[in-house]
Amino acid sequence: MEQNDLKEYRYNGARSLILLHKNHLNSFLKTWREAKSFNIALPETEDSDYKSLETLLIHVLRSARGYMIWMCDKLNLADPEINTVPEIHNIDSEADEYLKHLLAKWALPLTEIEESRFNNPTYTSNWGVEYCIDAMLEHAVMHPIRHEFQLRNLMRLRQKYIL
């Protein structure tokens, strides 16, 4: 899905954020593969989403799926029918195909929503924070950016100690 392949939206801000989300998920996956090739270990934590590179990848993809399902629910849209994320033992080999599916499903639901519905009202997220739809789209864009930044820092630290 190239920028020109994404159809017009009633609210171009949503279209822009969906394209940014696509770019940053693809960039995250590329960085994740690089971290995997360097055998990067995540810092010790009790958070099950950060036990391994595989659980981190599942977390990022599952979150992206969840954000769109949440937005569709709050806007009373049909279920976007995004498949569940592959199991941990398949995540590495199925990530590219799953991401392709996820991004195709992300491109569809919000095209006909008028701008005013993106900003008002707000809704409570699954983790208890209030978001309007526009803010949830921005959150969805930032999520893979944050984790890519984390992986890049871990790779820089590793290179520093190797040199």
Roughly how many Å apart are the termini? Answer: 40 Å
Specify the helix fraction band. Answer: 55-70%
* Cross-sheet strand order for the largest sheet: 1-2
**SSE series:** HHHHEEH
Instruction: Specify Rg, calculated over alpha carbons.
Output: 17 Å
Unreliable spans:
none
Number of domains: 1
Based on secondary structure, the structural category is mainly alpha
Indicate the CATH topology: Four Helix Bundle (Hemerythrin (Met), subunit A)
What fraction of the residues are assigned to beta strands by DSSP? under 5%
Map the helices and strands:
Layout: H1 12-37, H2 53-74, H3 91-106, H4 116-119, E1 123-124, E2 130-131, H5 133-162
Helix pairs in contact: 1-2, 1-3, 1-5, 2-3, 2-5
What does this structure look like?
It is a single chain. The mean pLDDT is 94. The chain has a two-stranded antiparallel ribbon. The longest helix has 30 residues, at 133-162. It has a single domain, classed as dinb family like domain (Four Helix Bundle (Hemerythrin (Met), subunit A)). Helix 1 (12-37) runs parallel beside helix 5. Helices cover 60% and strands 2% of the residues. It is mainly alpha-helical. The protein has 5 helices and 2 strands; from the N terminus they run H-H-H-H-E-E-H.
